[in-house]
Amino acid sequence: MSDPQFPEDESTAIRHDMHGRWPAAASLDEFRANLAAVHRRIAAACERAGRPASSVRLLPVSKTKPESSIRLAYAAGCRLLGENKPQEACHKWEATQDLSGLQWSVIGHLQTNKAKLVARFAAEFQALDSLRVAQALERRLQQEGRGLDVFVQVNTSGEASKYGLAPEEVAPFLRQLHAYPALRLRGLMTLAVFSPEPARVRPCFSLLRNLRERLRQDVPAGAQLDELSMGMSGDYEIAIEEGATVVRVGQALFGARALPDSHYWPSPDN
């Protein structure tokens, strides 16, 4: 069901028609212009929802983009970037060691054999969805002597093609995370159905918000469920209206990607 605050006539647009068509940011001025446009839209969505713009963190997603684009984002003030593939993220981390303060959030599905990469460099992991991955990360993080902020991924669309726990699996999963002290629980993450219809997209986000509200009193000591990471270039405004505290925006900032979707959507070799 739609939130009664946003009735079925749905004034907030879905911008999936721009997928693969967002203009490239080939210069610092172009990236800054795109960044300013996204921030304006975030502020407008927050105003519609009665929230301060400061309640939403923009996570620029640089997946498939070259090092030059990362350096543009850094020059524009971005200090945390998101990547889907751990290997790609690690290569970029290694190539940008001269950029002081730049951190990385891994937002894509993780195979256990790639846990060592994430434990080595990532500041944040947003796609935790199994105890096997939790165990692998914990072991590697203990070896590295560091902790990692994590989000639990929830499949709110019910699509078999998407990773993430089913909503009813989240509570028992959270109760088991106390066994992994290197993993600092920060919140939940989801991907909505890829649809031009707001009435189909919005329930994916409202479900995650409602789930968080039911669970946040029962999380283990020291854990938090303050964050909701939801919304991408085409639908982040609706996500904000539904309570997102983190929006993952790639193409609207960096421009359309030259590589096909199959390169960066989850796959067994991620």
Give me the secondary-structure topology.
Layout: H1 28-49, E1 57-60, H2 67-75, E2 80-83, H3 86-95, E3 103-106, H4 115-121, E4 124-128, H5 131-144, E5 148-153, H6 167-176, E6 183-189, H7 198-215, E7 227-229, H8 236-241, E8 246-249, H9 251-254, H10 261-264
Parallel strand pairs: 1-8, 2-3, 3-4, 4-5, 5-6, 6-7
Helix pairs in contact: 3-4, 4-5
Strand order of the main beta sheet, please?
2-3-4-5-6-7
Radius of gyration: 18 Å
- Overall mean pLDDT stands at 91
Give me the secondary-structure category. alpha/beta
Oligomeric form of this entry?
Answer: single chain
Number of strands: 8
N→C terminal distance? 34 Å
Q: Uncertain segments of ≥5 residues (pLDDT<50)? A: 1-10, 262-270
Query: Number of DSSP helices?
Result: 10
Sheet with most strands: 6 strands, parallel
Description:
Helices cover 39% and strands 14% of the residues. The chain has 270 residues and is of the alpha/beta class. The strands form two sheets. A six-stranded parallel beta sheet has the order 2-3-4-5-6-7. It has a two-stranded parallel ribbon with strand order 1-8. Strand 2 (80-83), helix 3 and strand 3 form a beta-alpha-beta unit. The chain is globular, with a radius of gyration of 18 Å.
